[in-house]
Amino acid sequence: MDLTAFERAREGRDVSGRDLSDIPRYPGSRRIFFRRDRRGSVGIYSLAYLCEGRREPPRTVINFMREGMRKKGWYLASEAGMPPVMLFVKGNGANLSSAEIFFGSSVKGESIIYVVVQSGS
């Protein structure tokens, strides 16, 4: 029997879904949201991670994601605001992918990382 997302969250486990191999995962974070959609030939993945029990400075989490994306071959196309919204691109033509990453925090001050990836077929 599979646990509901609420039960998994209460137990401190990742919600159902999967990590994306070309998106870095912050060490010790927990996946609290996963959704996969398709619009025509475009796959859309939405994920959220909670840096549970860690009060890392937001800049540390932001820098980890920026550098991790670069190491996985993504190009930072745009960054704005504080905390920033970062837009990365990878590939070209029909194989173009984009990843939007933005940041928030829980009521306990823990960092939350939101990721939305769109990729062609």
Structure description:
This protein has helices spanning 5-10, 58-71, and strands at residues 30-39, 42-50, 75-80, 85-90, 97-105, 111-119. By secondary structure, it is α+β, with helices and mostly antiparallel strands. The chain has a 6-stranded antiparallel sheet with strand order 1-2-6-5-4-3, with helices on one face. The radius of gyration is 15 Å and the shape is globular. The mean pLDDT is 87.
Task: Tag the structure with descriptive keywords.
2 helices, 121 residues, six-stranded antiparallel β-sheet, alpha+beta, globular
Q: What is the element string, with H for helices and E for strands?
A: HEEHEEEE
The side-by-side strand order for the widest beta sheet comes to: 1-2-6-5-4-3
Q: If you compute it from the alpha carbons, what radius of gyration comes out, rounded to the nearest whole angstrom?
A: 15 Å
Structural class: alpha+beta
Number of domains: 1
User: What's the main sheet like?
Assistant: 6 strands, antiparallel
Number of strands: 6
Arithmetic mean of pLDDT:
87
Shape: globular
Helix content: 10-25%
Secondary structure tally, helices: 2
